[in-house]
Amino acid sequence: MNTNETPILEVKELGIDFGGLTAVNDLDLAIYNKEIVGLIGPNGAGKTTVFNLLTKVYKPTRGTIFFDGKDTAGKTVVDINKAGIARTFQNIRLFNNLTVLDNVKTAYHNNIRYSPVEAVFRLPGYYAKEREIEGKSRELLEIMELGDFADVTAGNLPYGAQRRLEIARAMATEPKLLLLDEPAAGMNPQETDDLMRMIRFVRDHFEIAVLLIEHDMQLVMGICERIYVLNYGMLLAQGLPAEIQANPEVIKAYLGD
Amino acid sequence: MKNSKGIFGYLLDSRHRSRTISYTMVIAAYIILEVLLHSGSLSNLFQGLLVPATCYLVAAIGLNLNVGVSGELNLGQAGFMAVGAFSGVCVSGLLAGTLPAIPRLILAIIVGMLLTAGVGFLIGIPVLKLQGDYLAIVTLAFGQIVMNLIMNLYVAFDSTGIKVSFVESRFDLEPGGKFLINGPMGATGTERIATFTAGTILVLFALVVVYNLIYSRNGRAIMAARDNRIAAESIGINIANTKMMAFVISAALAGAAGALYGLNYSTMVASKFDYNTSILILVYVVLGGLGNINGTLISTVVLFLLPQLLRGLQDYRMLIYAVILIVIMLVTNNNVLKTKMGSLRRKKA
Amino acid sequence: MRFLSNLVTGLGLGSVYAIIALGYTMVYGIAKMLNFAHGDVIMVGAYIAFFALNRFSLPLIPGILVAVLGCTVLGVVIERLAYKPLRQASSLAVLITAIGVSYFLQNGAQLLWSASPKMFPAIISSGALKIGNLSIAYLTLVTIATCIVVMICLTLFINRTKTGSAMRACSEDKDAARLMGINVNGIISLTFAIGSGLAAVAAVLLCANYPTVTPTLGSMPGIKAFTAAVFGGIGSIPGALLGGLLLGIIEILSKAYISTQLSDVIVFGVLIVILLVKPAGLLGKKINEKV
Fold this sequence. Notes:
The structure holds three protein chains of three kinds.
Chain A: E1 9-18, E2 21-31, E3 36-40, H1 47-54, E4 62-67, E5 70-71, H2 77-83, E6 85-87, H3 100-106, H4 116-120, H5 124-143, H6 159-172, E7 177-181, H7 189-206, E8 209-213, H8 217-223, E9 226-231, E10 234-239, H9 241-246, H10 248-255
Helix pairs in contact in A: 3-5, 3-6, 5-6
Chain B: H1 6-12, H2 17-38, H3 44-69, H4 77-94, H5 101-127, H6 132-151, E1 153-158, E2 161-166, E3 178-182, H7 196-214, H8 217-227, H9 229-234, H10 239-262, H11 275-288, H12 293-309, H13 317-333, H14 335-348
Helix pairs in contact in B: 2-7, 3-7, 3-10, 3-11, 3-12, 4-5, 4-6, 4-10, 5-10, 7-10, 8-10, 11-12, 13-14
Chain C: H1 2-31, H2 38-55, H3 60-83, H4 91-113, E1 118-119, E2 128-131, E3 134-137, H5 138-160, H6 162-172, H7 174-179, H8 184-209, E4 212-213, H9 219-232, H10 237-257, H11 263-277
Antiparallel strand pairs in C: 1-4, 2-3
Helix pairs in contact in C: 1-5, 1-8, 1-9, 1-10, 2-3, 2-4, 2-8, 2-9, 3-8, 5-6, 5-8, 6-8, 9-10, 9-11, 10-11
């Protein structure tokens, strides 16, 4: 991390209340280009809420989120994706009735465009753009090792493959920052190892920043360059993996008194 | 996409199998029926059913885009047919002296389609803010509103121009002037210029539009928004726009179908297009299978003809139709019955 | 004065809508389905009451009870035969089945009793209560009073009895209710029984006000009451009352002051405006999806 550089994502004093309940409070985050950063914490610490705030599923009660140097206040979920943040979901959300390939193709919606008139009347633009979409989508499927599943209906995929497909789909929106919500949940150690390799490859190949929520400490300590620890909606600690592992506050939060 | 293989290579590609089947079915049915027509072996009753059948096919193909592909229940498709029917009748009536039948029919269908698309867009703005059953009831409400408004609409023309009025029917028409729409009496004295050939071409047009849309960037977005709204938004798809596209195209096809329908009868009343008609079309779509265009084609033809074929059973025909409808739904949607039917089929084989 | 008398007439019509809307809303609340055939159960109720009162010359109250009993049985039978096998199916499949049931009832009625209208006997003296210049038909008073009694009984039943709380539990979460030992199928049957029984009450009131009995008599009031249920927030019992009364008042007032022909346009127009402002209806609950 180069601290002279401006962060791609800069969060200041972020907070949200649901009714009287404060779910996230006074949160400061900074993510730099090409970093892999972990966001960890006990269950109910507010990690997914942070993702929902960053992607505007929830409107923050307090604080600011700057992405790529611009304030994101007033933006919608769609705007945020167009600005360059893509995400996956803790409870997998695929387009279950579409094929694996179409799931990825769909995500090129804004980056490779043609008009509905070109589509309905099959004008030349349609063919050229569709070829481009198909090529890029297949490339992403290969990266996430889903090539053999291209024509399978997404709802019928095995669990681990569904999680990888969510990443492929998010990557198809060509983001600058990728948010992964428990990408290794439900995977066996071998699958988790493969996933780590893929996440690193994606970061290096597409030169993007990654922020991930994960309970699997093998994965977190294995690939995250920096870690933020959240507890009761507040920042408990931040630092390098080794520092976090040795931090008595963090150990206490995880193991209890 | 297999452009280089030529049109046949394209049609035989496995990814386009369903559309190849659709086109084949429609064209084959057309040829067979035309041969039968010209050899005089079709009864008058059956001949009279050909154009209406194509109209329902077009409206049902459109509705499948809305209900099956886009996943929004629409109980107002007949209202859009009504807009197309009465605008088509007006266009044809106004141009009766100026244009021959075929270009007049084409123009009437185009006007009916575009006007209905416009009405669909205006209705879509409030309707698509809602979801699920609420959206369904509002489309039903709009269908009833459109029907009631047309029932109170008076359009006439004479040498001085077109006169339009609402609720009040008093026009001072010059000699030779004529009513195009006469309130609750509807359109009367319409020249019947709709033909089976035009209907078949319209069905093919609807198929091309819907298939080409489904296998495109916009079609994928529509299906993504149906399968998972939140995920679709997260990849930058504007839900309102995609839903609107499906809604408007569905309405436009209903409008085109309506225009053809209106020009197939010398008199047409708006109450023909009440919610019962909307529901009828919805039944065609659901029984054919949501999102399954070939299913829509088959179920529309079968269900449209069924009451006519049951005519021999006279008073019992609608009762039997109802029982068939219920039984089909129970057999196709109940897991226990499904398995039983499956094992029966295996025993037979 | 004229306005006041229109308002009371509207309340009378609205009371009928409210009782029908209760059937829609209870079934929706528990079984999460749009029972399109509910309007036709009303029609059957009207015929039963007609035959009981006219052919068999039963006194009023036993005649109504026979209609209520008949509709209750009909409702339960429909639920068992047509809807229960589809408990796990998509809501659209259930909707189409309900449409099939609706066709069945309408055409069955036409076969059994012919399409020609039958005149429903006058069940309440045609007099009117006079308060100053305002005169209110006894029939309207009875209609409104019936609606009030039905609402009070139903509210007490839902809130004060064990079965009522089982019903509320089922509408919140059927699986949890089942785990608590509630007979969910029984509760659904009971809901259909109550809704259909109320349909018979509504049928008698409807026919007392508009005394022609035909096989399609239920469809338009059915659609209107369904609208009323959505209006008030479908699934909510006070919502059905509020929606029904408002719909009746709007309909009568727009007939009186704006246009008879356009009253349906206005009724449905108001529904759309209300849903845009309150997307879950006046008293409905909005449920957000968890991300």
